[in-house]
Design a protein that fits this description.
Number of domains: 2
CATH superfamily of the largest domain: ATP-grasp fold, B domain
Strand content: 25-35%
Structural class: alpha+beta
Number of strands: 16
Helix content: 25-40%
Oligomer: single chain
CATH topology of the largest domain: D-amino Acid Aminotransferase, Chain A, domain 1
Shape: globular
């Protein structure tokens, strides 16, 4: 079932994000991953079959993978354990919804980069640095860093997230929690990257979100999905150029080569781009987990 948006009148709707619809329950939140797709700060008019289910299921895979490294916000992922008021929407929610702790996200996106690409590559070409981190001359596009770098951004509800330095984070959150976030983000990125490489996948970069609850760092939102990460096929990797990918970059590349000005309302995606995007999302899930999604 395609789900572009939800409209559950008897639930307390609190937010419609670019992809997720969020409802407030008594002491928790219902997070629903729809099939919407965004690019360049616009939600596109087209929906991608299976996309929301892939985002939800791949996040659940990583939450389990990291369970001994960091706490997460999950309460229920099995729809049969949901409250009765939610279970009646089972057909729409199956595979794409979780119930999570009601936590306040930290006001930063936590970006870990293992390779120089995307906005990091643009920043490097401009001034040889990313988020205040000075980098050596001579790096090539898509080159691997000797060690992953920590490059946070602001967390904007609308418009662009803006790069900030680790010192900017410390000014808001304090030294101790900022250093703890940096250490934990790089730790779990490295663990995921090592695992993915064995599956023939490079995780070039990714975005994490955290909250702090009772002094503990909690991993929240989505984790290492094709919306929040760049996944490259290892066997095709070649530094010095843009890489093929199993993620949303495929749609971005199509739009960059289209006549759309990236300022006005975006046009619908062609059927072949929708089909290929859906296929890429399902393929990365299969490659990483060994399982197939039937949708």
């Amino acid at each position: 079932m395609l789900v572009k948006e939800t409209n559950f009148k008897d639930l307390n709707f609190i937010k419609k994000g670019k992809v997720r619809d969020i409802y407030e329950l008594e002491n928790s939140l219902l997070l629903i991953a729809t099939d919407r797709i965004s690019a360049f700060d616009f939600v596109l008019p087209s929906v991608i079959p299976c996309k929301g289910i892939v985002l939800n299921m791949i996040s659940l895979f990583w939450f389990e993978f990291f369970k001994n490294n960091v706490q997460n916000h999950l309460i229920y992922s099995d729809i049969d354990e949901f409250p009765e008021i939610v279970k009646k929407y089972k057909d729409e929610l199956k595979g794409r919804a979780v119930i999570v702790k009601k936590l306040k996200p930290l006001p930063f996106e936590i970006i870990v980069r293992g390779y120089i690409t995307g906005s990091g590559w643009k920043s490097y070409k401009k001034n040889r640095e990313i988020s205040g981190i000075k980098l050596p001359d001579g790096l090539k596009e898509s080159e691997k860093f000797p060690e992953p770098i920590f490059t946070p951004t602001t967390k904007a509800d609308e418009g662009h997230d803006m790069p900030v330095s680790i010192d900017d984070m410390k000014a808001v959150l304090g030294n101790e929690i900022t250093e703890k976030i940096k250490e934990k983000a790089i730790e779990i990125y490295n663990k995921a990257a090592d695992y993915a490489e064995k599956k023939g996948i490079i995780i070039a970069d990714t975005k994490f979100e955290f909250a702090v609850h009772e002094g503990e760092l909690i991993l929240i939102d989505e984790v290492l999905t094709p919306d929040s990460s760049r996944f490259w096929p290892l066997k095709e990797y070649e530094p010095g150029k843009t890489q093929n990918s199993y993620d949303k970059q495929f749609v971005r590349n199509y739009l960059l080569n289209s006549s759309w000005d990236r300022k006005s309302v975006p046009p619908p995606l062609p059927d072949d781009i929708i089909e290929k995007t859906s296929s890429l999302y399902k393929e990365i899930y299969h490659l990483l987990t060994g399982k197939k999604i039937d949708c």
